[in-house]
Recover the amino acids of this structure.
């Protein structure tokens, strides 16, 4: 049975002996070294483990890997089905090193390779193209747009690749031609995801024409610059999919292909036209609030979806739909977790949700990651959560929302949030996730000041906000009076060794069980401290643990 071995947390000293013994004892293990900078000795120990007992999954996100480390480790990648080397600096010879290693093994078992945010650009293009010959799924989030023309010029027949992901690569208008050149050589492609770029209706039309010849099952084009001009091409594509599906199985009534167009300027008029054309009977097309399923046109009913017990993350939920959800909350006690992450909810929608939250007696977790909510909407939700005495304990996660973008520490909304968190009526809030919210150090110091008086919070996350030593100092001082907080995440900020050292000397911080510090410019010596943890999973684990 597969087991996850988190080397960074379970074995702080990653020697060859304890790595080999642990992994060998758990056949098929998932080795997770994410956010754990590796020394040369640790690289050598890991290489020995991979040689003796290749795992099913290897996670090396943000491990400080470069050419030297990859030359040692990549020779074993061909025997591991899934490898993540996200967030390492592969620009230069990194991808070439991986490709050369895969080329040496005629029976490559590698299916999924993730190269997200590795600084890849045009100089890496030819090696990315060759990489597609060896893997079934290639993930290229954050690749620079100038790499695409080079990939297109160097792609040869790739019969193995089935899934290709190029999220947020800044692909400009006109990239459709280059993408089609790549697709010319990927006859077995079933999933293509291109959200968060700058593709136009003309680009989408070219892609739809080319993809109609492939066994595609999912196409992601969300958050581009596509308009209703794509309607005619979409109709032609869906007609081709219907014919192909009918030829494969005349009795099939399932979904053969899904097209995601949310976050574009495509309107319901497009779906009405598709429905009127009588096509898409084996497909689903989503544009946000509206979708077409098996030839029928619908408006999404969030209330019905929630009552069915499912989440509505990445569902195209806007403010009007948030109102429907808010209206449902007081009357439906049937769920305790509400996942609204990766939608299009703004402060207006947050106000609607807060009205329902104030009267809901069952909800414990509200996950509202990566929406359009600012500190004003956060204030409304906090107020509804904290100031009703009989409400259940709750966890709120705002990670990735632009809460504090361009906000000063003296703004009225920031001061209001500080007042709520530090007030005596804040009794129910256990977890508050504020990672990646555009928070500056001045705002963070204000928020941390509320912890002096807060009597409910157990976990606070403020990772990836460019915070400096002043926040560490403020945390130390204000925790002298706090009796409930157990874990704090300050990972991936700008806290130096001086800030960490001062924190660890003060009794307020010593009351904590764990401080998360990975990704700060401080010495690795602090990683051996009893409660300084370099593992970066606090949002997922702690949120469920403390509510």
């Amino acid at each position: 049975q597969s087991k996850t071995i988190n080397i960074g947390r379970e074995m702080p000293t990653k020697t060859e002996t304890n790595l080999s013994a642990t992994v060998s004892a758990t056949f098929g293990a998932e080795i997770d070294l994410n956010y754990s900078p590796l020394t040369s000795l640790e690289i050598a120990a890991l290489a020995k483990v991979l040689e003796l007992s290749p795992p099913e999954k290897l996670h090396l996100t943000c491990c400080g890997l470069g050419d030297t480390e990859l030359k040692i480790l990549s020779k074993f990648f061909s025997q591991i089905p899934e490898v993540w080397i996200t967030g390492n600096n592969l620009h230069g010879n990194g991808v070439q090193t991986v490709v050369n290693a895969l080329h040496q093994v005629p029976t490559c078992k590698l299916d999924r390779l993730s190269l997200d945010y590795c600084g890849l650009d045009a100089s890496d293009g030819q090696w990315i193209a060759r990489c597609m010959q060896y893997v079934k799924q290639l993930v290229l989030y954050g690749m620079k747009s100038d790499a695409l023309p080079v990939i297109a010029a160097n792609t040869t027949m790739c019969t193995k690749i089935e899934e290709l992901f190029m999220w947020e690569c800044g692909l400009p208008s006109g990239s459709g031609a280059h993408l089609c050149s790549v697709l010319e050589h990927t006859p077995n492609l079933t999933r293509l995801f291109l959200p968060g770029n700058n593709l136009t209706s003309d680009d989408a039309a070219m892609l739809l024409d080319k993809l109609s010849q492939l066994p595609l099952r999912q196409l992601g084009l969300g958050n581009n610059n596509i308009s209703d001009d794509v309607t005619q091409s979409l109709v032609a594509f869906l007609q081709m999919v219907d014919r192909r599906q009918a030829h494969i199985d005349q009795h099939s009534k399932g979904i053969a292909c899904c097209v995601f167009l949310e976050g574009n300027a495509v309107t319901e008029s497009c779906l009405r036209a598709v429905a009127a054309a009588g096509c898409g009977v084996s497909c689903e097309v989503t544009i946000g609030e509206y979708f077409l399923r098996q030839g029928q046109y619908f408006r999404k009913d969030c209330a019905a979806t929630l009552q069915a017990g499912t989440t509505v993350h990445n569902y195209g939920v806007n403010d009007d739909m948030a109102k429907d959800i808010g209206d449902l909350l007081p009357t439906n006690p049937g769920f305790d977790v509400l996942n609204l992450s990766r939608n299009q909810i703004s402060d207006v929608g947050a106000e609607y949700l807060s009205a329902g939250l104030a009267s809901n007696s069952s909800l414990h977790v509200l996950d509202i990651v990566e929406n359009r909510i600012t500190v004003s909407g956060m204030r409304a939700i906090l107020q509804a959560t904290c100031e009703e005495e009989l409400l259940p304990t709750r966890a709120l996660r705002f990670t990735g929302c632009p809460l504090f973008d361009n906000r000063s520490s003296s703004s009225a909304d920031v001061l209001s949030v500080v007042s709520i968190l530090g007030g005596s009526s804040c009794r129910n809030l256990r977890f508050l996730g504020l990672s990646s919210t555009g928070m500056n150090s001045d705002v963070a110091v204000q928020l941390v000041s509320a912890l002096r008086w807060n009597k409910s919070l157990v976990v606070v996350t403020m990772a990836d906000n460019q915070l400096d030593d002043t926040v560490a100092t403020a945390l130390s001082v204000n925790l002298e009076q706090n009796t409930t907080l157990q874990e704090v995440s300050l990972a991936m900020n700008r806290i130096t060794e001086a800030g960490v050292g001062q924190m660890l000397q003060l009794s307020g911080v010593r009351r904590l069980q764990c401080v998360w510090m990975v990704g700060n410019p401080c010495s690795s010596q602090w990683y051996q401290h009893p409660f300084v943890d370099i593992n970066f999973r606090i949002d997922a684990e702690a949120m469920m643990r403390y509510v």
In short: The chain is about 35% helix and 15% strand. The longest helix spans residues 231-248. The radius of gyration is 25 Å.
